[in-house]
Design brief:
Layout: H1 20-27, H2 31-39, E1 46-48, E2 51-53, H3 56-71, H4 75-86, H5 90-148
Antiparallel strand pairs: 1-2
Helix pairs in contact: 1-2, 4-5
Length: about 150
C-alpha cells in the first residue's frame, strides 16, 4: 500500500495539492514569481509548517495569471476579476467585467495593428525611395567613370 503524497488530504477534495516547486516546473517560472503572486494576494496556499501547499484553485489562478499577463492584463485587473469571481454572484459580474477588459484590450491591439501597418507602409515607401536614390547615384557614378575613361 502506497503512502499518500499529500500529508493533509482534507485540505483539498481528492487530496490534490501542489508544492511551489511542482508549479514552478509545470509553468516554467521561478518559485520567486509564484511567491510574488502570493504576496500580491493572487494566490493563497495553505501551510504545512514552512511548506506551501497550493490547491487546484491556486493552480488554475496561476494559469489564468500567466495567460492574462500574455494578453496584457495588469495584476490589478487580474485581482479585480478574481475578487469578482469570489463574490456570491461574482460569475456573471466577473464575466461582464472580463468582457469589458477584453474589449478594451482588443481595441488597443487593433489600434496597435493599425499603427504598425501604417508604419510598415511608411517604411516600405522610405525603403523604395532610398533604393531608387542609390540606384540613381550608382548609374550616375557609372556614367561618370565611363566618360572619364
Amino acid at each position: 500500500m502506497s503512502t499518500p503524497t499529500n500529508p493533509h488530504p482534507e485540505q483539498e477534495p481528492g487530496g490534490t495539492t501542489f508544492t511551489i516547486g511542482e508549479l514552478a516546473r509545470e509553468f516554467d517560472i521561478t518559485t520567486r514569481t509564484i511567491r510574488f503572486y502570493e504576496d500580491q494576494g493572487l494566490l493563497s496556499p495553505t501551510r504545512s509548517g514552512t511548506r506551501r501547499l497550493y490547491r487546484r484553485r491556486d493552480r488554475a489562478r496561476l494559469k489564468l495569471i500567466l495567460r492574462g499577463k500574455r494578453l496584457g492584463f495588469t495584476l490589478a485587473e487580474m485581482r479585480e476579476a478574481f475578487d469578482l469571481y469570489d463574490e456570491a454572484h461574482g460569475e456573471a459580474q466577473q464575466l461582464r467585467y472580463y468582457l469589458s477588459v477584453l474589449e478594451e484590450k482588443r481595441q488597443h491591439l487593433l489600434q496597435q495593428r493599425e499603427d504598425l501597418e501604417e508604419t510598415m507602409r511608411e517604411l516600405e515607401q522610405s525603403y523604395a525611395h532610398c533604393q531608387q536614390l542609390l540606384e540613381q547615384q550608382e548609374r550616375e557614378r557609372g556614367d561618370t567613370q565611363r566618360m572619364a575613361s
